[in-house]
Fold these 4 entries.
Entry 1:
Amino acid sequence: MLIKEHLHKIKQSLSDKVILVAVTKTKSNADIMKAYDAGHRDFGENKIQEMVRKYEELPKDIRWHMIGHVQRNKVKYMAPFVHLIHAVDSLKLLKEINKQAKKHQRVINCLLQARIAQEETKFGMPFNEIDTLIKSTELPDLQNIKITGLMGMASFTDDKKQLRKEFKSLSDFFKNLVKSQNKTESKIGDAPSSLQHNLKLTILSMGMSADYLIAVEEGSTMVRVGSAIFGLRNYI
Ligand SMILES: *Cc1c(COP(=O)(O)O)cnc(C)c1O
């Protein structure tokens, strides 16, 4: 099957409310253009250098998603154009993104990465750390970032029950945050500083080629799909 057909089939399996990020890491510009010519505009990369190169070479109306782990010293390279950073895992990183965004007079949208997988991983924050971060008194000062949601990656397993459990745990946590956010917003007479103006949770990014249908059933609003569209990669 062709890239265009894969893309079409996956889009058909998703409701209009779910955003499909086509993950293009290791893939050629020619392959990306096949999806682009089919009308797709949201593309994801996990390495900053590769994303910058593709940004420079490809049409400028592409929305570039940084889905991989971000090193602070590389934020500056993507700050001029990145559409959404999916894997923010510390206040320190958020501050660097804010600093670089400011230089370009932009507001950069960010998702906080939650740690939901069973296996040992250094990436992502436990739920209590996310809680602490969004309540931080330093957050309102960051005028050039906006936290628009959460992201999570499930365990590398075929165990559907386990995958569902992990997605559900993140989805429940997300829904509770949204609920308390809406409560705070509707309270009249709140001091403005108690409202995190740069916290507007609407996106839940979870699900990849092997598990996106389960993720969507559990409440995902954004899926990151690579190999199911472009075929297997030569390296990870
Ligand atoms: C590579 C990658 C994906 C897509 O993986 P596929 O299994 O090819 O769909 C999704 N999310 C992240 C963070 C990735 O690094």
Note: The domain at 3-187+194-230 is CATH 3.20.20.10 (TIM Barrel).
Entry 2:
Amino acid sequence: MRRFPVRVRKPIPENLTSFLRQPPLPRFRSRLHDERTASLIGTALGAAFATAFLTGLVSHVLQHPPSWLAHHLPTRPSWGYRLTQGLHVASGIAAIPLLLAKLWTVYPKLFEWPPLKSVLHALERLSILVLFSGAVFELVTGLLNSAQWYVWGAQFPFVQTHYWVAWITVGALVVHVGVKAPAIARGLRSPKKELVEAYRADLEAQRRGVSRRAFITTTAVAAGAVTVATVGESVTPLATVSVLSPRDVTVGEQRLPVNRTAAQAGVTRAVTGADWRLRVTGGARPLSLSLDDLAALAQTSAALPIACVEGWSVGAHWQGVRIGDLLDLAGAPHDADIRVTSLEKNGAYAVMVMERQYARDPSALLALRLNGQPLTLDHGYPARIIVPNRPGVLQTKWVQQMAVIA
Ligand SMILES: Nc1nc2c(c(=O)[nH]1)N[C@H]1C(S)=C(S)[C@@H](COP(=O)(O)O)O[C@H]1N2
Ligand SMILES: [Mo]
């Protein structure tokens, strides 16, 4: 005969409660995981992120100016965007080893017990999850974009996503710094006693393993090395030592790299041939000018960089007709913005709006020559835009029309 077990409320065995109270998680005593290491590396990482965020905002505003700001963007210094975008990509690249070091420093927190102590503690950990994911996302997509490796394909809107995730990440960073302010202050403060103790502990650690000093030095050297190895794409004198630059700016016809070739843009010799005319429309006297007509007008020279949003930049010597002169000739009002259209049919850069302050800058050119020679087809022959302090994407090549916007 079968006997049914009687349900009795068994007490939880003593060893289970103690297991739950204090599970056998690893303990970390190394100074590489303490407050001071986390604060020092975190401060450097925070500075890199702040730089990348602010310069990223500059880039976004210059590329997609909100209407209230569009007419107040300065055309000087002419190398302004070259500097801010160079900083943007350099600080992003330097942040990669700093982030790895920071993650190493704080990963023991994953073994904290209990994992969630209160609602506030849960929120704080959630903000760190957002911060971590956002930071990794920004650095990975930014690096891939600067290498022009569009693994995400044409469907993924890089610019918009990179921009909005930056805001979310910085929001989480502000929360994190606020919550950790006391710990950061403790970590950064180092009274003499702490220094002596730290020195002794470092000596001791050296005998046993990696000292904090060695860890921080290694991190700093790694951040410096990746910066020097890549920054030559915007600091031309360093081009030869920057062996890991996404862009080698020492190669390229007419001593200037080509971001998108004529073939990639679907522009051929046929459409840029003898029939080509520049049309300037919307003014009191619409113009239609051949290349010879343009060459017969007063020619102006300007030394201006191409500064690509992807981080590379190079200075070059340009020659051509002042955009302001063409607009005067076409009877355009002085305060008019213009819309520039390329021969390129469907590209993202086929149409570009230029606010009046750029159009009327004395070194804003419809360029015909680059570094002493007529433009090659890949650099925008027969005529291209070159304007101070604007992102490369707005320096339209293969110009066909300039229309005065009412
Ligand atoms: N019509 C057109 N103009 C364009 C582009 C393009 O793809 N199509 N690329 C832009 C970008 S992204 C940059 S950085 C500069 C590069 O100019 P370069 O190829 O002469 O160096 O051209 C800009 N002008
Ligand atoms: Mo570009």
Note: The chain has two domains: 35-238, 253-405.
Entry 3:
Amino acid sequence: MAFLQEKVLFVWFMFSLTSGFTSSRSDHYTPPNLKHLTELFPRLKFNQGFKESFGESNIKLMDNGSFVNVTLDKSSGSGFVSQDDYYYGFFNTAIKLPAGFSSGVVVAFYVSSFFSLSLMSNSEIFPHNHDEIDIELLGHQNRKEWILQTNIYGNGSIKTGREEKFHLWFDPTEQHHQYSIIWNSNHTVFLVDNVPIREVTHSEGISSAYPLKPMSLHCTIWDGSEWATNGGKDPVNYKYAPFVASFGDMQMEGCKWDKTKQVPFCVKSGQGLSILDPVEGEEFAKLSQEQKMGMDDYRKRFMIYSYCKDPRRYKVLPPECNR
Ligand SMILES: *[C@@H]1O[C@H](CO)[C@@H](O)[C@H](O)[C@H]1NC(C)=O
Ligand SMILES: *[C@@H]1O[C@H](CO)[C@@H](O)[C@H](O)[C@H]1NC(C)=O
Ligand SMILES: *[C@@H]1O[C@H](CO)[C@@H](O)[C@H](O)[C@H]1NC(C)=O
Ligand SMILES: *[C@@H]1O[C@H](CO)[C@@H](O)[C@H](O)[C@H]1NC(C)=O
């Protein structure tokens, strides 16, 4: 997880530099009623597609594996990972975050090629060449709100951090909310409760930094003290442990990666093998006008950091910023 530590440290450093950059937030936000992509696919139980990745004694299955509680305590964080790798897909989970003091606690939902077994067994993996699409929820001491951070890497483009950070319009510790990632050859989209909050188009601008390796899905909780929260000033306080996050409504739909043949094969729910990749359909290839408007409005109100608006960090902005 060293790569995670590196980048989070950097992000918090940048965040402290840019803390003057605030959103014009509205407390009277009603999310638009957009297409419910999360209603299109079956929800998976733990043993229908996942396995423990670390901190096994801190993972608890509930409701026959429909929900998974992952705990961070003094002994360990914990997490689980998809059994398969995917080459494009739609990934969703509902998360309820730990209530109370949460400084330094990080809850993450991400796809990454870093631990991709198919590549590793082929010894093709270069730790600095990996692809990743991140949703990270960052606990905070002083603000009541958790912060949602998104990031995207291709081919190990870690030096060019492409972070964007957002406030949420709800208290994420009260109930479960849906967090989703669309990833295909056209674009990558981050969504919260079916509202798109960020779109990264697979354009010439971003070219080789666009994720194009098979990736596995990870759900984790871990201690971000060393680098998060003002450079370690407000570490995880284990007086308030255990910190428990609940994951449910797990959905993974798209092209699984065939490790033997090293090709993607696409499965459409209920129909077995199919050449039609359900995430390449029109509604996954581009955002509708309504979705675009919903996204623009959300970003205007709730975005608190974008690398594209950080000239102190990038004297020359990454090419995809100049749209
Ligand atoms: C639990 O889930 C499995 C599928 O993962 C299913 O086969 C089994 O019948 C379920 N058990 C109960 C009690 O619902
Ligand atoms: C699972 O985690 C959620 C979120 O922290 C919590 O509300 C719930 O009580 C937990 N359930 C158990 C059995 O630990
Ligand atoms: C999505 O990308 C594919 C090629 O990967 C292209 O054929 C298709 O036209 C694109 N769709 C949209 C809506 O841009
Ligand atoms: C990926 O990065 C390596 C250097 O780390 C470079 O040699 C290679 O050309 C890159 N691949 C692509 C597709 O840009």
Note: The CA atoms of residues 55 and 75 lie 9 Å apart.
Entry 4:
Amino acid sequence: MKIMNPEKPSLHVFELLESEVRSYCRSFPTVFTRAKGCTLWDSAGIAYLDFFAGAGALNYGHNNAELKKKLIAYIQNDGVTHSLDMATAAKEQFLEKFQTTILEPRGLSYKVQFPGPTGANSVESALKLARKVTGRSTVIGFTNGFHGMTLGALSVTGNKFKRRGAGVPLHHTVSMPYEGYMSDEVDTIAYMRNYLQDSGSGVSLPAAIIVETIQGEGGINVASAEWLRSLEQLCKEHGILLIVDDVQMGCGRTGTFFSFEEAGIRPDIVCLSKSIGGFGLPMALTLIRPELDIWEPGEHNGTFRGNNLAFITAAEALNYWETTSFANGIAAKGKLLHRQLQEMVAAYPLLKGTVRGRGLMQGIAFELEGIAEKVCERAFTKGLIMETSGTDSEVAKVMPPLVIEEAELMRGLAILRESMMEIAAEQ
Ligand SMILES: *Cc1c(COP(=O)(O)O)cnc(C)c1O
């Protein structure tokens, strides 16, 4: 690779040749060349601490040494890379390990579908299956929900800008208020129950309700365990399937492997992707309660369902879940992060921030418009990668790889604090 100007990496090639749709390279305007653990380096040799973790696809860090070792050995040995959904040893090993390390210890029973390698693929398959099983067409999604960019996934996504991109009406869905959407006083489950019970409500009985336990893209809105249990109860009362989209919050992000473990609910269908492959390689799963697995062979398929390189790293990544120490570490770092963020919002009251989230999915929501963006922009100039979330980009999101060391976490938080201090002084 030629480096035209080692002092300041140029984005010229991207501006000239890549579509206007590109976005993260606008927030983080440099050219990255290397990555290890929680650090990315650009072509000028500048190091950036990563509090973004590939939007949750890099929970085990960049180029995780153990995962990389297994991956390289598999490739060296001419292991199968692409296999559609043929049976391979790599897939067999993953399926067995997922069963014994994740499902069995949690008392969960699911058939595993490989729907194609993205989160949206998993969501699409979940919606299709729920409609097939129930024979109903409507699906309920929630305000500020995010489920992906394909038409089905968009139809249960809240964001107006993203929905408009569909270019066609997004049908067969109803949006209902997430917990706390109207005010803390309104019980949104009771509100939904009203709609479902009343034959004059204009809302027909849905096939499924799709929910995120914490809305990541939607602004780190956290559903309480109690609300999730009430939602499950509501689904049971009406024979509605409960789909948990754990694409971003799963794989340990909130402190447990599945984000719904704390609530003790048992979703009918679970969507997983992002970090399930472990190494940042594309992979997705749709977990299906066995009685619901009424697919005909090949009824939902896809060319890249057999990404064996991801199966290898996914199986290896499950080693993190063989004891409780990894989960305990996430909880401890999550508490530390919460205290630190609380201190920051108290130190700069002018910015009117509040702390949201749990585990290593937290952030600061700013009441003043544009502050979250300014803070993230400033942090980047100081070597920290952070993204905003929320419909109006009002939340500065802290989501480092789960393997981050406490000292690294503190170093990044010091940069965040400094950025907030500077932005507050400029107000
Ligand atoms: C990222 C995400 C998706 C979509 O995943 P893609 O791999 O981008 O298709 C779906 N649901 C949630 C909750 C996500 O965070």
Note: The chain has two domains: 23-50+324-426, 67-321.
